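Kindly review these tokens for lecture notes.

. . .
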Amino acid sequence: MNFKEYIHAIDQLYHVGNTTEHSFRGSLASYLQSILNNFVVTNEPRRIDCGAPDYVITQKNVPVAFLEAKDVNDGDLDGRRQHKEQFNRYKSSLDRIIFTDYLDFHLYVGGEYRDAVRIAETRGDRIVGIPDNEAKFTEMVLHLATEGRQRITSSSALAKQMAGKAHLLSDAVKKSIALDGEDGNSDMAVLLRAFRKALIHDLKPEEFADIYAQTIVYGLFTARLNDQTPEDFSRQEAAELIPKSNPFLRKVFQNIAVYDLDESIAWIVEDLVSMFAATDADRIMKNYGGNKRHSDPIVHFYEDFLAEYDPKLRKARGVWYTPAPVVKFIVSSIDEILQTEYNLPMGLADDSTIMIKRAIQQSKDKRTSDGMKHEMVPVHRVQILDPATGTGTFLAEIIQQVRDKFEGMEGVWPSYVENSLIPRLHGFEILMASYTIAHLKLSLTLKATGYERVSKDRLNVFLTNSLEEATPRATDLFAKWLSDEADEASRVKTETPVMICTGNPPYSVSSQNMGKWITDLIADYKKNLNERKTNLDDDYIKFIRLGQHYVEKNGTGILAYISNNSFIDGITHRQMRRLLMKAFDKIYILDLHGSSRKQEVAPDGGKDENVFDIMQGVSINLFVKTGSKKKDE
């Protein structure tokens, strides 16, 4: 279909009347296809229902450009009024897109207005072409499809584009579930139910959409960082490049982004692949390992991504970057306490073992409480858990400080890491993006210490809700990769003798974690208060109670957090303080202040600044239980 034929076709439709933006789709697709002989112009209703632009221009299945069409004489092709939300979403996530009303065409590249051309106008009930603009339109379309994607060389630019495409994916998944219903038989609905059963039992469709989007975005990101030949980067190759040390991400990605990729979102995934292929990963990663805030691109990606993708999610989950000096101080303090209070000269590097009773899988014994046979097995004594791992900052610092103890003993380091360090490090995380980055960060940290991974064993960071009770072992064959992750996390929750519980737990007064298990645990802090309002449901309090639970279960140990400091002198926290003093032998609290509400000043009269960009004051808390204190002390 040439220019004249296109004008004639849409004129005939317009003249008849009762047309909508959908009426002209076929004609524009035919006209575009006649210009773009070596490309495929697709107009797929199912994709559009799931949030795709009206037209996708592809070459060898790789999206190169997009068009979004509105009704004739729409009047808002720059998205300043009724289309603002939709157009901004497309501008921020799609490298090249044209917004059109079939007569006027506005081109945006990299989110910025580039050019416009009008090829027809309405006169009464007729559409009349503007032949003088035909050549410019043809040039615009050819340039749109053939112009190479701009190379991405900065971490902030990459994080922003990743967030934009994650938005598209998340919206597409939500719309797909809404179309078929949560109880439907679509791939999305079935997968949502599987996630609920195996991992997060109160998972909402929008939360599932976030996990799905982040899995694909960060799965591709991780794969790209491991790819030495980006020119042929593909989602099939990505499935093999995701490290085996993260089997869950590897399996999830393979299942939802390669083998069973929903066709309604395939265009987004392929556009992501194209974006990562144009990313200078080496340049972005060159500053890895610096000491200044944000010099670590791994953390930078995570913070920028979450700030762009969903700031409310960051606030709801209490996600805040922990300054390196704080992390170093806490980890160093744990190391010193292990040496002085537990007589472990190597501190965090201690590799001594103890014997524990562990259930034998797939065994039966009616005489035991859990109905299974048990055996005594040796495990390392200094087991470490970060129950709110985030990007893995605390675990990475532990690795660094343990490595410092092996200065001059580099020959034994790889064997030590394999047999006596990795098995002792555990982390729980509920956000898919940070979970993925934690794996990546820990792998890179270990590699920087001189350890080249040879074992096929995974890193013990799990996607799970720390505040949910361990789930019974799953037996479903469907989505076994989901149940395997849940089983491994449950094994840590129930069988691992956690001695060190450390990290930066989330602060969120409006806690979303209201499950029965943690609610029952936190009830101990609320007994006999006789207060109308207790303010004891903040997530940070639940994580302190969780850490106390693990240490008491083990009999000895250290709980070391940086947290909200309201529990230090809060009126309704008095029972919490009493139980903590009863449970632990020694308590060290370093109040960092920083509360904007209290309007305190520093000792020198200066401003009372917070180590975080938040209003609530914080403190570093070290709770030590050696087991030497008598019951009533």
